[in-house]
Specification:
The chain is an alpha+beta fold. Helix content is about 55%, strand content about 10%. The protein has 15 helices and 7 strands. The chain is elongated and about 85 Å long.
Length: about 375
């Protein structure tokens, strides 16, 4: 049974009359605003809307659960396999934009996250780009990830997932590395060593091997294979990497500088983490990111983030002749992704290439 709450007081927006309309049906409250010449005209639109809602066939799925419940289930699912707080928050923020703000404005009769009307995500694209002025590439990546999770959790259907996947993700343009010199990088490392020794060690490790901040901060001491007191190799666990299920390549500790760094971290027996916080706990990647951003500006006047060391490592490796060893050390699988997003051309690299080609020509090698 429907209970009509009625038509609200008219509002003038851009010289046009709008009336709020609302009613209840099957325990759900429906709210909207319609453009009408009079209150009677708004009432007729309300009746037509009610007839559409009451005659629409309903598919009972988990998707019709209260949005607060769905949001909490999604939050727990995201938190179970994503450690970065910033990423966790982005999932929830995007969910709220899609299924709270956008839905209430354009699809107030929608009961859940399933059986979404055709064009739902295309309309959301217009809403995101034209009204919110947000980066659509970043937004659609998270929308697709959210719908994939909701489908697996039973709150959306395969048709909903197909609808969002039919929207192409725009190509991204890689961010260039901050302009720097090798001396500036060494000065930054020295600044961190004196200012925060606990942060200096994971930063130094990323500088040497090009691993991600998440992977670096998640390494345990038990991941280091030893020969007596001599560390031999680091074998990180799959769940600590971006690939999750695939065993990452080991890092062999043959380099004296790298081995000395690992030995110094193993000296602390009060924590299971290889690169612990000064209080003995795990260093959160966000804290490392914030510290490095501020410290780099103070030390060298250039903002640097943990990912800078990954790009620098792979760019330097490419100058020296990129091979499987450098890819394994940085734990990167896709060559095309690496060449597009990580490796940058440098004056030194081009000079080295010309020198190599010149030597080959002079020596008569083909």
């Amino acid at each position: 049974m429907a209970k009509i709450t009625g038509v609200g007081k008219e509002r003038i927006i851009s010289s046009k009359k709008y009336f709020p309309i609302y009613f209840r049906f099957n325990g759900h409250r429906y709210n909207s605003s319609v453009k009408a010449e009079s209150k009677f005209d708004a009432y007729r639109q309300l009746q037509a809307w009610m007839a559409e809602i009451m005659t629409k066939p309903r598919i009972i799925t988990n998707g019709e659960t209260n949005y607060d419940v769905i949001r909490e289930v999604l939050r727990k699912d995201v938190n179970s396999d994503i450690t970065a707080r910033k990423t966790r928050n982005l999932y929830i923020n995007v969910f709220n934009r899609v299924f709270v703000d956008f839905r209430q404005r354009y699809y107030p009769a929608l009961l859940g996250c399933s059986s979404l009307p055709m064009g739902f995500f295309r309309k959301y694209k217009s809403y995101t780009c034209e009204e919110l002025k947000r980066n659509w590439r970043a937004e659609i990546i998270y929308v697709k990830a959210i719908m994939n999770r909701l489908t697996k959790l039973g709150y959306s259907t395969e048709d909903d997932l197909k609808q969002v996947r039919s929207i192409a993700t725009p190509e991204g343009s890689p961010r260039p590395m901050p302009k720097h010199t090798d001396k500036q990088v060494l000065n930054l490392l020295e600044y961190a060593r004196k200012d925060r020794p606990d942060f200096y060690k994971p930063i130094k490790f990323m500088h040497l091997v090009g691993r991600r901040a998440d992977e670096t901060c998640s390494i345990l001491k038990e991941d280091v294979s030893m020969n007596g007191l001599d560390p031999l190799v680091i074998q990180t666990r799959p769940e600590t990497t971006k690939m999750k299920k695939q065993l990452p390549p080991p890092i062999y500790l043959e380099d004296p500088e790298l081995k000395a760094l690992i030995k110094s971290t193993l000296a602390n027996n009060k924590t299971p983490w290889l690169f612990p916080h000064k209080n003995g706990g795990k260093i959160h990647p966000n804290y490392l990111w914030k510290y490095l951003s501020k410290a780099s500006i103070q030390a060298i006047g250039v903002k640097v983030t943990p990912h800078f060391f990954r790009k620098k490592f792979l760019t330097e490796s490419n100058r020296g002749g990129l091979n499987k060893d450098s890819m394994a050390m940085a734990n990167i699988k896709n060559v095309s992704v690496m060449m597009k997003h990580y490796v940058e051309t440098t004056p030194e690299g081009q000079a080295k290439l010309l020198e190599k080609n010149r030597n080959r020509a002079y020596n008569g090698n083909s």
